[in-house]
Model the fold of this input.
Amino acid sequence: MVSWWLTFRKKSLVITDWWYDMRSELKHSPWRQLLWPWKPESSREAGSAVVQNFLLHWFPNRVSLKSLSFPYSMYLGTITLTLFLVLTVTGIFLMFFYTPSVERAYWSIKDIEFAVSFGWFLRRVHRLAAHMMVAMVFLHMFRVFYTNAYKDGTTVGSKRSYNWVIGIVLLVLTLLLSFTGYLLPWDQLAFWAITVGTNIASNVPLIGEEIRRFLLGGTIIGQNALIRFYVLHVAFLPLAMFGLIAWHMWRIRKDGGLAVIEQVREETKKQPPQLPRKTKTYSVLGIAKGVTAQVIDPTVLNDENSVPSSPNLTMRVLNVVLLTVLVLTVLALFVHAPLEAPANPEVTPNPAKAPWYFLGLQELVGYSAFIGGVLIPFLVVVGLAMIPFIDREQTHLGIWFTNSTGKRWTWIGLLWGFVTTVVCVAIGVMFPMREVFAGIESQLFFELVNPANLLILSFLGLYYVSFIKTRSHRMAGIALFSAFVISFILLTYIGTALRGPNWMFYWPWETWPIHPISF
Amino acid sequence: MKRISEKELYLLLAAGALVFFASMAVIFADTSPEWKDYQAEFKDIIAENFGSVDLATVPSGIQQIWVKDLNRVDRCITCHQGIVWKGLERVEQPWTTHPKPEILETHPVEKYGCTICHGGQGYAVTEYEAHGFEKDWGEPLLSEIIGSEYDPRNPPPLYEIRCNLCHRYERSTPGADYINYAKSLVRKKGCKICHVINGNGGSLGPDLTREGEKYPGSFDFSNFAVEIPSIFNWHFYHFKSPSSVVPNTIMPDMNFQTKDAIALTMLVMSWKDHSSLPIDYFPGVELKEVRTPEEIEYDRRLREGDGAFFVEHSCFVCHSVKAFDIKSPTDKGPDLSFAPDDVRARFNKTVEEFLFEPTGTMKIILESQIILTDKQKWEAIEKINKAYNIVKNKADSLSTSGTSLR
Ligand code: HEM
Done:
């Protein structure tokens, strides 16, 4: 067994060596624009690969081992980007077959499922990738937050805080893309999820109805709404997304790399100064204004702590892409893309639910439409965007949970978030405010007195207490963010799995009433 | 320079290989659908049965009938290739000739397709989905498979429901025995006394003209125990015993037998909204129900004769009024012609006292279902007395003639 493995390894190295030779054959051919040295013979060759190649020019010349390390970033951003590209490709194919009209939309999806070659596969991959992309964007944001990577640090020209805000916009765009796509099949699931979703929007005070009318192009979900959602979904939002992703990537380069580079910098500072080295880097090329990190501090990345991007980063990215595609392909073989009965405005499915990532909000909307549907989403988005501007402590960048105190506050936050969310839902289920205060008519009263507000207050209280205890916005932020994370997960789970017909609460072991059928 | 780690390379090889195999699986799944097997088998059957047919002329690939007028695309013939062939009667499904060629003559497949008569999902090309057994497909194939869930020994021909989409205004349709039987029951039991059906009828019960259009979710199954909560079962049990399905209903129990209930269920489920069907699909009748002159005359007499009051106020749903030639379809209550004697015997009251201070069932009905003003009550009393006199006089004249004879 062992000897078999050894020969296998030897053999495969022969193969890779053969490939290296092939590569040098190609080195001087026109293919150079697309292929690149896999085993560069010198740092210089590695660097020019990145500069000369169109596909690689957004990689840095060298990349630190710490940034490359899987446990640091988990490549969640890369996975998200891969999913976005998969969605673009499958989406373009789907566009050839989909008709955005009320009469044809549903039936064109049926055709894609049954009569178009690989249509079923395209549709499944597109849908799976869409759900996964939403999940991955959230996970990516969690990772960036916990690794303290939204901060500028000490690198000149670094504005990671901007990139965090761009990221928030990307998060919102991802949700909008998914939401607009949800309507297109024009089945009951689509129709009623969008009904619920746009009704949530109509709770904005004063202009709520206007917003809904603007989204739908009318007062009902009909042809106007469909064409609006279609154009947003296939043109406007993807283009905006594409531009912002490019900006996001460009900023990472401008920021001197991932935040963990600050750790590398501190370590090299501790070492005895090295002899001056050649400082030329290809990331600057005189195109970018000002000077970059590498020029000012050329000794940060050296042969010990970093490797050339080509082939180390390229190979890693290729692996991440392949594994993402693999997961999607295998899942698509088994997981069907749902298509319910054609949209029917007269028949409300019970329960009617928004897409899963909004079900946490829908749960809160059950307590108060304004608080759950308007105030909390507003607070969440604005609050998230403000994180880098409240927490300005520029130390411990790129370290998961910052330090042991950070870990402790993470646990406290998770626990607090869990308990308060459970209490909030329990009150909502067992003592609905409208029953407890049955005599009261005033809408305002119920906007003020309800479990969702209790949740907001308990979160603010958590921030206050942790800040008093630690005098650190980072620590208080960790506590609050952790409470938010667990609450978001819990509420989404409850909205998805524990809410049945008439939005009644069902334990996982309780069965919902069976849906009647025709025959 | 550091060489790239071997782990990374092996991962790449493994991931590449797995993506390759997964893609192969996808290609295999897409290029070997079950219908290809059926089509191959069909060619063998043709070769066996008709040696002279050139197999290259047998269609292959997804086959479909697009019926523009009905807005239907039916791909059933992708597997059921033998349907329009003659001479494959003895071959089994899915390759067999259509078992009722005479129906195909009057209903050519190009003009009808398949699913308008059989149900099922015409778009689909896999058996389970095409037969419409998917959870969200409202029109399953109405074959014996479903029929036998309701009567295993004698599965009802549920497809007749779909015949009646177009044939609903016919009095009787050749071949649709259950539907014909149900239509005769509707006439005999007088359902239209309380219900509007096809545009006319009484108003005590709901309009049934589009009953078949109702959605499964709009039926209430909470009052009775049933294994499959289906519309079919709801109607079935409701016909057998209305009040066990809808407590406090005023719909009378008509003592329908199992077969009656099945046939009626099929009939009401066929009453769909047909406004999207082109008019020329309806067999040569005006779009209303045909009634015999006697029925029309009887109806006129009910509404205009001396007893019109009792018809107008729906008393006759339960009570006959012999004196005015009114026959109750249910006879749940006693004949009103004898009311004065009856009321005295049972409640020790006059008719006036009883109508103004009713007791028992009539109390409920007069308070909730049939609400009469005082003026109407007096009119009722007057009419009842008139009826009483008529029967009494008849009886008297009979008995006087009898005495004189004696
Ligand atoms: C469509 C959505 C997004 C895409 C495609 C994307 C892509 C990426 C990629 C490829 C990276 C490199 C590191 C990695 O792979 O983890 C990255 C880093 C980063 N992203 Fe995103 N991202 C998205 C959304 C977000 C969101 C929602 C946020 C935060 C609110 C965010 C904030 C950041 C920040 C601050 C960095 C630098 C991290 C560091 O320095 O360690 N991004 N993003």
